[in-house]
Description:
There is one protein chain. By secondary structure, this protein is mostly helical. Helices cover 64% and strands 0% of the residues. The protein has a single domain, classed as Helicase, Ruva Protein, domain 3 (Orthogonal Bundle), CATH 1.10.8. Helix 3 packs across helix 4 (64-71).
Amino acid sequence: MCDDPVRAANLAKANEVRYARADLKRKLNDRPPSYGHELLLDPPPELERVKIAEFLTWLPGVNIKRGKAIMLGIVHTDTLTIGKASLVTREKLVERIKHYQPSRRMGASRMAVAA
């Protein structure tokens, strides 16, 4: 497919990162909300270059508007990556996420009441 070994290696590495990020997105939906907090506080190498605004939209119950509200006053640019953010910034984000992210129990109880 590709004659250049450097290009082939880069493509393989990019695919690995894409698959790892897709796996993390699936895990974020399957596990409790605290898993997202753990990822933000101690990010794996695949998340180092992900923008915080994008990562927040991966969390259950957080859309773009809610993500911007979470970042307000903590992160002053949409382009800041998780790897570039300080630990203090990430800790503040986790505290704010806890406030804005709905718990799964609330959603389950609403479903039970509606049924």
